[in-house]
């Protein structure tokens, strides 16, 4: 059994506690509580082969007594979980006015269940959870990179299509320029042909009065 005795206190006043073993450590826990400074702190006291770990924050102390073999990581993970459960409990809002052991009936079972959980199948500690979250983030990043790579292939395909369209546009402009040039020459040819037709019409009208060689008009004037 790693965790032996746990409690929540306001100053040196114990509000709720649970003892997993048969040996009474009440005097030892009271002595430790009297030594904890009023400011926010986190520390471990050594007594015989036991360690007293505590977190003091906001005027409340969360303390657990554990075997030396439990180390410090698991007991402090337990205390963090204990603090979270206590601060989220409805009774914590009025804990300033509650007498000693006033929360034993309501919060004592919570301490008991939490201690049993950590003694039998402790959840992953913060380091393990952080590593798990890091692995999850890494997996997500790998998936994102794969998506970016596939998007890059689509971008390359789009660029290829854009190049083809740019080439087609260039060919279209070149063709349009040739068409304009052909249209210009055709217009010039039509204009020249129109001038030639006009001259021929003028000659026809003139030939009706002056003859085909246009010499009769000149001879008539001399006579």
Structure, described:
The structure is a single chain. The chain is α+β, with helices and mostly antiparallel strands and 223 residues long. It has helices at 26-35, 73-88, 104-120, 126-210, 216-222; strands at residues 3-10, 13-19, 41-47, 50-57, 60-67. It has a domain at 3-123: Longin domain (Beta-Lactamase), CATH 3.30.450.50. It is 61% helix and 17% strand. The protein has a five-stranded antiparallel sheet with strand order 2-1-5-4-3, with helices on both faces. A hairpin with a 2-residue loop joins strand 1 (3-10) and strand 2 (13-19). The longest helix has 85 residues, at 126-210.
Strand content: 15-25%
Strand order of the largest sheet: 2-1-5-4-3
Structural class: alpha+beta
C-alpha geometry: rod-shaped
**In the CATH hierarchy, what is the architecture of the domain at 3-123 at level 2?**
2-Layer Sandwich
Order of helices and strands: EEHEEEHHHH
- Work out the oligomeric state of the chains in this entry: single chain
Biggest beta sheet attributes: 5 strands, antiparallel
Query: Could you give me the name of the CATH homologous superfamily of the domain at 3-123?
Result: Longin domain
Number of strands: 5
Overall residue-averaged pLDDT value: 79
Return the CATH class of the domain at 3-123.
Alpha Beta
């Amino acid at each position: 059994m790693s965790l032996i005795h746990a409690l929540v206190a306001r100053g040196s006043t114990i509000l709720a506690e649970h003892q997993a073993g048969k040996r009474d450590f009440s005097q030892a826990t009271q002595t430790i509580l009297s030594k904890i400074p009023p400011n926010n702190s986190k520390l471990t006291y050594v007594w015989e082969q036991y360690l007293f770990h505590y977190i003091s924050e906001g005027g409340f102390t969360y303390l657990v007594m554990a075997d030396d073999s439990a180390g410090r990581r698991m007991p402090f993970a337990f205390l963090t979980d204990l603090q979270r459960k206590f601060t989220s409990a409805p009774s914590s809002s009025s804990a300033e006015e509650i007498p000693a052991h006033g929360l034993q009936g309501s919060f004592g079972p919570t301490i008991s269940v939490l201690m049993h959980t950590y003694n039998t199948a402790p959840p992953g500690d913060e380091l393990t959870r952080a590593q798990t979250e890091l692995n999850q983030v890494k997996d997500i990043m790998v998936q994102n990179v794969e998506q970016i790579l596939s998007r890059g292939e689509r971008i390359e395909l789009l660029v290829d299509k854009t190049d083809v369209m740019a080439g087609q546009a260039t060919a279209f402009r070149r063709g349009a320029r040739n068409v304009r040039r052909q249209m210009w020459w055709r217009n010039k040819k039509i204009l020249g042909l129109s001038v030639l037709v006009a001259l021929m019409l003028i000659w026809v009208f003139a030939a009706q009065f002056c003859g085909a060689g246009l010499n009769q008009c000149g001879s008539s004037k001399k006579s």
